[in-house]
Design a protein that fits this description.
The protein is an all-alpha fold and 87 residues long. The protein has a domain at 8-66. It has helices at 10-14, 66-76. The model has no long low-confidence stretch (mean pLDDT 84). The structure holds zinc ion (ZN) (2 copies). One zinc ion binds next to loops.
């Protein structure tokens, strides 16, 4: 029997959405985790709730990254690529 190692997506199973933002876990009195993104390796995100970048749990990570938010918002708002310059 060829055992296909099809690992289920734990996030999909739980109906959770994996966070994409930076980690906000405090690592000391003055600084917080330097991890800027949950799951640098996207394939690992399907099988673990712990970040592969910093090892902190997903709940410490923000759902959205500010920068990504900005980009998506620009895409959504029109998608007209600087067509305003009428010659
Ligand atoms: Zn972290
Ligand atoms: Zn992390």
């Amino acid at each position: 029997m060829a055992a296909t190692q099809q690992q289920p997506n734990i996030w999909a199973q739980m109906e959770y959405v994996p966070p994409r933002g930076p980690c906000s876990q405090k690592t000391s009195m003055v600084s917080s985790c330097a991890c800027y993104r949950f799951m640098i390796h996207p394939l690992k995100a399907a099988t673990s709730f712990d970040c592969d970048g910093c090892g902190h749990h997903a709940s410490f990570h923000r759902m959205e990254s500010k920068e990504e938010e900005e980009v998506t918002r620009r895409w959504k708002s029109g998608g007209n690529f600087e067509r305003k310059c009428a010659g």
